[in-house]
What we know:
Radius of gyration: 13 Å
Amino acid sequence: MEKIREIIAYKKYFEDFLKSQPVKVQNKIFKIIEAIETLERIPTTYLKLISGTNGLYEARIQLGSDIWRVFCFFDKGRLVILLNGFQKKTEKTPKNEIDKAISLMNEYYESSK
């Protein structure tokens, strides 16, 4: 399949998160990433804009009743930058996780000027 988007991870945040997950979860995360790379229209079950943020998205991973989120954003339209991830234990995405992702996103834009 041809890639529509290029995905990169910003610093080591995503890699550290990924390595801390069981192999089954890692595989599922890779499947979601592949879908984001190759699908013209990404279903919101995989990728959703977080309301009230300036372009912050969460990639959504579910395995059984367990849920994980990986924050990301688009740069120059095509590039998806992966940030931190976490296992979701509550109905709403915790504000501190969103705040952390926003500060990483801002840091990225500052450093790429």
